Amino acid sequence: MHRQIFTFFLLLILILSGCSQGKNLEKQTKPTVSIVIAKEENILIEQVYEAVLQMSDEQVISAEVAGYLRQTFHKVGEQVPSGAKIALLENNALYLATERSRQEIGLSEIQLEKSKVQSEEAKRELERNRTLYQNDALSKVELEKSESKWNLFLQNLDEAQKRLDLARINQKESQLNESDCLITAPCDLWLAESLVQVGEYVNTGQALFRGGKIESLILQIDILPTEAADWQIGDQLEVECKEIIKKATITNINQLSHLGSEYVTVELSLDNSQYDWHPGTIVQLKYTKEMEKQILIPVEAISSGKEPYVYVVKDNKISRQPISLGESMGSKISVSGLKDGTILVSGGLHRLRDGEEVEIKEGF
Amino acid sequence: MFKQILKQWLAIGLTVILILFSGIMTIYQLPRREIPIIEHPIALITTIYPGATASQVEKHVTDKLESELAGLTGINDVTSVSQAGLSQITLKADAKVNANEVWNKVQQKMDFAQASFPEGVQESSLESDLQLQGVSIYQLVAPEEEDLYLLNDLLDSWESSFSKLPDIAQIQIQGLPASEILIEIDAARMLAADLSPLEIMQTIQSEIAPSPPGKWNLDETIYQLRLNHTLDLNKLHSLPLPAKNADPALHLGDVAKIHSHLQDNRQIVTYNGSPSVSVSFFASAGIDLVKADREISQLLGQLQEELPENIEVFQVYTQAHAISNMFKSLGMAFLLAILFVVLVSSSGLNRYASIGVAITIPLALCGAILILPLAKVDMNQITLIAFIIVLGILVDDAIVVNENISRYRIGGNSALASVIEGTRGVASSVIVSTLIIIFVFSPLLFLSGGAGDFIRPLPTVIIAAIIASTLVALLVIPVYRYWLEEHLQDIDKLTQNGWLDSQLNRLQNYYEKNILPKVLEKPKKYVAFCLLISLAAYLLVPIVPKEFFPDVEREEIFIEIELPKSHSLASTREKVGEIESYIIEQTGVMKVNTFYAAIMPRIFGMSNASAVGANSANMLIFIDNQQVKARQVKDDLAYELNREFPLAYFTFSVVESGPPIGAPMSIRLTGNSLEEIQLLSDEIKQVLLAESGVIGVKDDFGAPSPALVFTPNEAAMKLHNVSPAQIGQTLRLYGEGIKIGEIEDGLKLQNIRLKYKGELAKHSPEFTNLILFNHLGQPIPLGYVAAHQTKLELEHISHSNYQRSNTIRAYLDSSTSSSKLENNLIPTIKQLSLNYPEIQLEYGGENVARTDAFIEIGYIFVVIIFLLLLVIIIQFKSIPLALIIMTTVLLSSSGAIYSLFITRTPLGFMALMGVVSLAGIVVRNGIILIEFMEQKVKAGMELITAVKLAGGQRLRPILLTVGTSFFGLMPIILGNNLLFRPLAICIAGGLLFSTIFTLILIPCAYFLYRREKI
Prior knowledge:
The structure holds two protein chains of two kinds.
Chain A: H1 2-19, E1 32-37, E2 39-41, E3 44-52, E4 54-62, E5 67-72, E6 79-80, E7 85-90, H2 92-134, H3 140-179, E8 182-184, E9 189-194, E10 201-202, E11 207-223, H4 225-228, E12 236-241, E13 244-254, E14 264-271, E15 282-290, E16 294-298, E17 303-304, E18 308-314, E19 317-322, E20 324-329, E21 332-336, E22 343-345, E23 359-361
Parallel strand pairs in A: 1-23
Antiparallel strand pairs in A: 1-22, 2-16, 3-15, 4-11, 5-7, 5-10, 6-9, 7-8, 9-11, 11-14, 12-13, 12-15, 13-14, 16-21, 17-18, 18-19, 20-21
Chain B: H1 2-7, H2 9-29, E1 42-48, H3 54-69, E2 75-83, E3 86-93, H4 99-115, E4 125-127, E5 133-141, H5 145-149, H6 151-163, E6 168-174, E7 179-185, H7 187-193, H8 197-208, E8 215-218, E9 221-224, H9 233-237, H10 252-255, E10 256-262, E11 268-271, E12 274-283, H11 289-303, E13 312-318, H12 319-348, H13 351-371, H14 381-410, H15 415-441, H16 449-455, H17 457-487, H18 491-495, H19 501-521, H20 523-536, E14 556-562, H21 569-584, E15 589-596, E16 616-623, H22 630-644, E17 649-654, E18 665-671, H23 674-690, E19 694-699, E20 705-712, H24 714-719, H25 724-734, E21 738-745, E22 748-756, E23 771-773, E24 779-781, H26 782-785, E25 786-793, E26 796-800, E27 803-812, H27 818-833, E28 840-844, H28 846-876, H29 879-903, H30 909-938, H31 943-974, H32 981-1013
Parallel strand pairs in B: 7-22
Antiparallel strand pairs in B: 1-3, 1-4, 2-3, 2-26, 5-12, 5-13, 6-12, 7-10, 8-9, 11-12, 11-15, 14-16, 14-17, 15-16, 18-27, 18-28, 19-27, 20-25, 21-22, 23-24, 26-27
């Protein structure tokens, strides 16, 4: 009997040992989540356009005469006062003409001097002959002879005078021609570009330099008509170049500048009385626009089943709420379907079950 | 003839020495590894399609490849993942076909498919060498990531030195910071110079890759032409550009910043938080890993001197360490087992018989070892455990033969006669019992799948050793005994008995005189009692814990960390760095090796660690397994990390001791509609997450990630002379850039990448002003030709056997069993799927793999029972007697279940192997008893006397054979080998239980059967 009881207990112990649970740590199964609050935010949209600075009052300086460009007196990028020399052209024909007219004047002057002397002589001879005639020392024929000689010399003198005058006019003309070889600034201007190299031959009327005024600069950008609708003549935009920011004013919005395409050319002007910005530089035109207030949430707080959804946390319980996505704003997305201030699970949505209780943890 | 053999003791002796010698030599030649090679002919087709979205990759690459592959035979599983810029198709070949032939065919099909790829798709590559075995991992650690950059050239030369080692098949270098040349073009300057990116690209390309000059035929002699053209960074700077109004001429350096730059999509490796380069070594199949490891460390020792001073080398892991540990502990168990077996057999046998038995052990083992190379079995833990199991069995034949010879000798026969008669008397039953063992174990050779490959050495070794031991018992033992009789004059010594002789005699007496008479009085009651106890065991099956394969007590823990998709490599590095330092502080954690945006070296045969994006990291943690247990640390970390870092997603795993089986539970959804699959997946995931014990749910799709969808306006594109390709190109130039070629920089080719300079605008409304160049090279704001929208999209589209699919995997904590979970959830999931009739569900994971394996083992068990019955029926020519003998198998299975239950050992694959092995061992006890009873009854003895006598006479050999097996397994049961404990417990427990009850049940049942017959 004792043995049976002993066996029974032995068996019981063996069986119970089999039934006993091993070390089993019961752990809390509530998942931890970190949270984020859906916030209504102002979004500033910054549009950046690239544009090239242009001069106002742009002028082209052309050659009035043909010739070789011999010398320039100013470099591109320099401010040139009105009338200052810019460059010199060289034309041999013009030079020779001037020389020739100078020679002609000399010759004419000699001729005139000679005619003067001859006419003086003839006059003196005539007066002597007249006296001789009055004294009847001379025949009337001889007197008439000297009279006509004097008249002839008088005409010669007149002719020489006229020839000299003509030579002078010629000289003037050739001098004027030669002075066209010197290119000067028609007004105060900023030399933007040299179109001809020194030594090159230019024709009459050929453009030599480009210049203009840079006290105020001009900008042109092409924008979409939808954007243009927000803009008005007189609006000011920020322009940035090499970390300097200036303001530009819209002077013209030309809807028809690009026929056949839908975009719009906007012209702006910019004060540059310091002369510190130069035409041809690429600048960035920034236009900041405030969008309507939007609810923004981090990308990681959104998952998607049939439609995008978030988990809203309320009383430590989470529930799915469908949302629709708007524009993306960096690490956040604008959404609709959420109220400002709603508490959301900030990430790890795949671990969660709709309706379950969670423990909220701060941070990552 | 037998007489002739007996006299040739010298020849036999020399043969014995030869076998022992060559057996020992073979041991040293057999490759050593941890677990058997599990054949997985797997190939991976990778195709890169830069800039394409997941759905574009699916449509233009994956679908085309798959439709070509669909007709191929020899492939039984095709899965693919299409993700942004990348298509990966994984092929599993049938185990029975020649994988190389299949891969050749696959290569041909790939070539066909590639012909129809759109422009921009890079050539597909086929990688089929995944069945390499990992040897070791080293880390070259530097204080700063920049210091590692210097290692580029050095590691190139290392790679070639190491690949010259005969045993090294592959070297995997990870974390080497690769640099590239980045050309950042300035959009504004290009606008001013009236240049388009296309012109810049063409200029650079014609410079890097001038058209090849071809050949010349000079006087019928062909000259190959070569353009001797080099390019460097300076040359790129001064590359003239075809600008239209530039004066003076414009160079690339004027409109672009050109610089060398660390690649953004690089992999980062850290070792205990410091930047490092990971070098992993792989050997091809069949190589001895210990030897390979030695070669590596020798060469590394030499090469290490070339390293810069601030670089330190650490060996993180070596398979050789694990292997030599395993061999040390199992070798010790093996020696102990031999000691126990010899002790037990000498307890009932005299000194000389014991020596005979002791000779059998090395001889049979060496004989078996000689067969191993032919059977393509190497030294691994399964081989060793098979040797330990077979130890207890292989001495049985020798014991029986020895004992019988002694019986004849004591009976007064001459030496020669007793040796001949003694051997002949038991020869048939020795052969039958050997046949039984062969029949029991040979079906295991045909077990399929990874589990089959895993266990194959066990039946091979046992069958080989048993055949060898039978030959030894029938040839060597008689020769030994004859030699002994001839040379030993003192016959008395031969009749002395073992050291437990008197106790055994007393036990024999008690059994014969007290127990048997008592039970034979009420045989029906005792038969019923035994059967009831035995059947009651099966009621315990549901409550016995189940585990297909146990996690080994290893040092490694793997964590796959996935941060939200929006994380860049830099922010992943920062966040995972926090996690890393948290883990390093935990007790027992020795070292942490993290692979950012890279897979873990495939050294551990981990096939499911797959997170490779910039937002992911794979962490390899080594713990001190003397101080803490891997499984416990894993569970604790899972709990703590999920709490501390809720935004990150963790997948934990430890090394499985068996073949890889993946997640505990997996559900695969296949269908055509991605949307429906996604919706049903979401519902199923919600159901899984609701279940307690589920610590993580993952699927192929992953969390949807934000996408900006640009929709071109056809009319506007026509108006502005813009093509969709130009829009795509522009978007890429603003983002990651476009690779436009390669430049040789010293030893290595460096990529050249072109992109726009500067930061992108943050807000999507600002994207309308990004500049696009049309066909004519005119700048056009992007907003004119395309509208954009923010969406959430799937990053991966996966296919399974050519259909769109999603596999959901559930990971459980250690206390939850997947079968319970499945039983709870499958009805609910089926209900959910009714709403999506187009979608097929398929269940997989550990539970299914286990069920499949259990079913197959069950089938094999039935085959074994029939084979046993066949042998017994042939021997006894009686079906009822055969059935009585087969009750021993029933008893042994029950005993196995009881012992599992009592020791709280999980029922798994190895336990079932134990149950199967038991059948062969215990059935012999029944045969020994019944055979003797039949002999006596046929000799005319009274039934009850015959039964009692048989019980008494046969108790000793039964106890001895059972004892050798039982004690032979003790070192394993008491040791710490988690994998084999269930097997050893099953065999030992089953033997003990079955022996005790067999000694009651068989005499009673036989008594009843004969009494009825008479």
